[in-house]
Amino acid sequence: MKKKWIGTCIGGRYRIESMLGQGGMSHVYLAEDMKLKGKKWAVKGIYPSEEETMTFMEEAEMLAKLHHPQLPQLVDYFTTDDGTGFLVMDYIQGPTLQDLFEGNGREFPLVKMVDIAFQLCDLFHYLHTFQPCPIIYRDLKPSNIMINEQSQVRLIDFGVARQFKKGKQADTMQMGTIGFAAPEQFMGLQTDARSDLYSLGAMLYYLLSGGQFAYMTQKPLEQIKPKLPDALTSTVRLLLQENPQHRCQSAMEVKMRLRSIYPDQTNMTENMHHTSQLPPDKLIVIGGLFSGVGSTFTAISLARILNAIHIPNALIEQPTIEPDLYMLLYGDMKAPKDYRFAVHLITAQEKCLSSSASWDNGLSTWVPLHPDGYHDAWLPADSFKLLHTIKKPIILWDVSTHWEHPSVRELCHSADEIIVVIDASPGKCNRPSSRAHFERFNSYRQRGKRVHYVANGCLPGQLEKEWAESLPAPPLCTLPELPRSKVMRAVWNGECIQDHPEVLAQLNYALSPLLKEILPRNSMSLSGKKKTNPSIFSKLMKRGS
What we know:
Elements: E1 9-10, E2 14-22, E3 26-33, E4 40-46, H1 53-64, E5 74-79, E6 85-90, H2 97-103, H3 110-128, E7 135-136, E8 145-147, E9 153-155, E10 162-163, H4 193-208, H5 214-217, H6 221-224, H7 230-239, H8 251-258, H9 265-272, E11 282-288, H10 295-308, E12 313-317, H11 325-328, H12 331-334, H13 342-347, E13 359-361, E14 364-367, H14 380-389, E15 394-400, H15 406-414, E16 417-423, H16 426-429, H17 432-446, E17 450-456, H18 461-469, E18 477-479, H19 484-492, H20 501-518, H21 536-544
């Protein structure tokens, strides 16, 4: 290719004016549209390879389906007689991130770096959850990112993007830029979403270190820049793990890890006008080691305790499980008359949750399944769509026993806390399925996730000690045993037993070790209100003293 195309007309309408850039496999040209006078396009020419032309055409058709305001729109594609493939895309004018970085003395304000990382996480989430096949970008670097006047990130080069094909052992061609590309891109292995996340970590390292490459320095970022927030340096370190299994597993996990250093949303919106959505302050996944152990009861109990101490929260029922929450909360009597189930609204692309009344009980918002269940496929991307529509500081997500479902695994990768409810029964805890769950929970812990065990029921004396010692970690606390007559009376009256003051006090006391672990230190400020009155618990404890 090279300069032989300059001055020629290709595809019957695109006159090549000049070269914009080049790489090992391709060249990018500025072209004028001969039909739409004055219209400029970026035309990327890709060298013929050993792959069949059909592969190029399939990828081009895939890229043409992308519709995102921060991604270049592919408007045309074709091949020439010599087999060269051409992609015709939006021509985006403006400085690249590399240009801005160099022009600013290889320094960037931390607030801007975090904002760029957040926007890239949103873009990767869109690409990695694209249907019918995820799209792997594979060439993230500062020169492939443009920043407009509104500080909005745009990716400008999609020439080496590929569809992820599950089960394939290796990419057909190894592509990427040394210093930013993941190790597997040069080792003949298949790339996936985690390859893009490695590149994100490598790019952050480069920008935050003043232009140094992690693979060359072999130093943790915190040694080069000691004053950076721990949440940032630890995330970069995790992203740069050589083994993909040891990295962050999704773009949303990266976003959740970084959000503690994210500046005030109002100021950021005024200064940068970006559209990145903030995740909740805390995502807590709750489930049981086996069926019937009481995970939903525990989730409702935590929601009502949070309500009592003035912390807004939401409880979401995992769409793939057997419906239970609606009935337990007496939805036929207590749900709003115009209530519409959020899960169904999320998967109906043309509808929005804002058009439906939320089901609020004080500061708790209930997000149950329809009593008939949800029978369509539920994807990890659907979970994050739902997660970002629930505007509550703390979100509890009840997954029952569906730990192996892909959407639940994705949630666990992104969760701040994972709560596992177990029965004080050695036999049940030693089941093969239970042991497999314990191995998964242990892997989460090894990757820095906080996993807490809560016992439902207890064993007498020495038996309880021996049982606790047989677990991967001892239970933090034990749920109180409530009189069956009291429970049945509440059911008969259509009441949530957790709202009985004396029961709520019992639950708060029993679960206090867990609450100390999972509640943020500034939890009282999350509600946006000053706590002027003593809580229900302090009143009850005074009565009993």
